Sequence to fold (116 residues):
Amino acid sequence: MHRAQVLQPHVEVDVRVFRNGPRWSLGYEAVHYAIFAALFYLSGARKWLVAGALLLIAGPKVLLLLPIWWLGVWTWKRAQQGPLPADKAALAFFGSIAAHAIFRWSWLPVFFKGAT
Fold:
């Protein structure tokens, strides 16, 4: 299935995890926002049909970064509730460093390099 040209105009761009070049960002985010809109503003079977169609159109490169986009949504919603208590903030800070180290030392960087 061909990707929609409007949603993914730069199919051949080489995207690497943990790099944030602006060239690919808008095409990816447009799909992420459309999926978000389908899931939160539609209801019933239509919600799932539209979101599923968007996921199929998006393709694997866009979907690999979707969890990180959802983490940003969660972070924004969480920030509206005020600051984290010091113990939870420290856990989040050091936990993210540990998660990054585990990621870098695992087989995942090789997988993502091949997938993107």
